[in-house]
Automatic annotation (TrEMBL):
This is TetR family transcriptional regulator. Coiled coil: none annotated. It comes from the Bacteria. Gene3D superfamilies: Homeodomain-like, Tetracycline Repressor, domain 2. The lineage of its organism: Bacteria, Bacillati, Actinomycetota, Actinomycetes, Streptosporangiales. Residues 51-70 bind DNA.
Amino acid sequence: MSTSPPEQRADRADDPLDRLPLRERKKLKTRRAIQQHALRLFEEQGYDATTVEQIAAAAEISPSTFFRYFPTKEDVVVSDEYDPVMARMLREQPADLPPVEALRRVLRDLLPEMFAADQETVLARVRLTASVPSVRSRTFEAMRAGTQAMLREVIAERAGRRPDDLDADALAWAVVGVLMSAMYAWMDGVVEVGDMADLIDHNLAFLAAGCPL
């Protein structure tokens, strides 16, 4: 795992974080720094042997500050800053684009940037998700409260529907399923990490076409 300072990584010109407003970037840089220290300690000591107090000490913050950014230790693995980036990019897509096509355009831009800026972090998080049951359970909860809820809101907004629209909710869950399918394909060794973006785009095209078999 890279030991380059999180601050330097977060300031890279091609970092997707640069798409966010300054106030959000500052907060998310702090989250990223805490996460980097946590992932390093998990690799060195093991997930179960690493405490929140140790993570906080490494990040030079108090445990109470840690919990302001991450409600649980599992969340320091599960959480990332890409949901607000994705939401912002989706809202910038042409209004007449169907929702899945809009999402394909966003991810074709975002995923290469994400892997270029954060590949080691992404892989470390996926490995922990695959190997730690509590993290795997929290991942599903976070998907529901984070990515799925964001997608439902933006899909409904673009369609001129209520935020709790059931059709938007169903489509958002279908998209989450596509993302999780690609993640498990990588964890099972079916695809290489470099093929993830293409697989996600293929799966979204398959979804948009009505899943013809």
